[in-house]
Design a protein that fits this description.
mainly beta
Amino acid sequence: ALEISGWLKIENVVKGQQDWEVARISVVFYDAKGTRLGDWPAPIASIQGTRDWALYDNQYSIPKNTAWATLEISMGNCTGQAWFSDIRFMAYDYDLKPLVVGQPTHPNLKPPSPKKGDNWLLNPDFEMPGASGWSGGHITLDGHQSLHCLTVENISPAWTSPAQDVSFKGQSPA
């Protein structure tokens, strides 16, 4: 199982021509050849207008043969400004305990007790300005309950989509 969550604040986000052309947090699963698996999963967040910080989350069953997933935080062909903070990408084993990155899984094997918050993302709190992994946005101050956040602004309709690929490295979360 996979749980993805994040805080999102928006200002004056005007939707593009399609319903998905708004401020979004989304995930897509791929096999080892780079082929998308299944249909487009429901987004974690998909909003427009002006809204203060709010937590958005969703849970997913990971499709069979998933090699990696791409987590995207975006302003898709719309205008406005969005702030993203505290993004979490948590995988769980068969007994619903957080799965440590690189830890083997098996339905009959209980994992060691991981520390709370085993997030599979690099720089999920945007605390390392200049770090790779979220190109396309700007790390700014005033995150939600953290010092920094990732800010994405479109003055005219554009596709601005900071993303991060997360490899499952042969692991099979439940």
